[in-house]
């Protein structure tokens, strides 16, 4: 792979079998994503956006084709190896935050680190760094119910970046937020991309969100086109 390339999607197709019916979700997708890119994926519901995001993040596997990240063909890894790869290389940001209600902001952000060999002191340093980056260092003991939607998404972003992954994948990260909070989250993602050089792949239906991306691609019936 070229030195600047982080992700290479090569002739990737994804089909599902339902009885005798074959459902073609993605059909021969080719994408190259450079290190430090901010890619927006748009398209109508059912176009395959989230499926493609899941393939890039190693949550799902293609029916055919290759998904290569940092020179490693993740689509060929065993389940155990893929789980280990995801935990250290990918940060996930979801539309509905996926925070655990009974854990504080600090504890939610710390979760990915509990599977590492970091000491308690080191975990605390990582968590506080992440919460400071998202502007919530003063909310460490607050529970999700005590936070606004925008603050909850900030906690979720802190959790995504706490292990310093190379890649952030965001599935409709502003889809459940009001306009002001959505703007703040997009500003934050832009900062993570510009200042921390995080590579971001974002699925969105919102043209205003997509404007923040360096490049935008559209999926329609499993076929990819560039803006």
Task: Describe the fold and architecture.
This protein is α/β, with parallel strands linked by helices and 227 residues long. It has one domain (36-59, 89-226): Rossmann fold (3-Layer(aba) Sandwich), CATH 3.40.50.300. The protein is built from seven helices and ten strands. The protein has helices at 49-56, 79-89, 105-110, 120-133, 149-161, 179-195, 207-210; strands at 5-18, 21-34, 38-42, 64-69, 72-73, 90-93, 167-171, 199-203, 215-220, 223-226. Strands 6-7-8-3-9-10 form a six-stranded mixed β-sheet, with helices on both faces. It has a four-stranded antiparallel β-sheet with strand order 2-1-4-5, covered by helices on one side. α4 (120-133) packs across α5 (149-161) and α5 (149-161) runs parallel beside α6. The longest helix has 17 residues, at 179-195. The mean pLDDT is 90.
Short summary:
The protein has 227 residues and is of the alpha/beta class. It is built from 7 helices and 10 strands. It has one domain: Rossmann fold.
Helical residue percent band: 25-40%
First-residue to last-residue Cα separation? 24 Å
Can you identify the CATH class?
Answer: Alpha Beta
CATH architecture identity: 3-Layer(aba) Sandwich
Largest sheet: 6 strands, mixed
Give the rounded overall mean pLDDT. Answer: 90
The poorly predicted ranges are none
Shape: globular
Determine the strand fraction and express it as a percent band: 25-35%
Q: What spatial order of strands do you see in the largest sheet? A: 6-7-8-3-9-10
Q: Name the helix and strand elements from N-terminus to C-terminus, one letter apiece.
A: EEEHEEHEHHHEHEHEE
**Count of extended strands:** 10
Number of H/I helices: 7
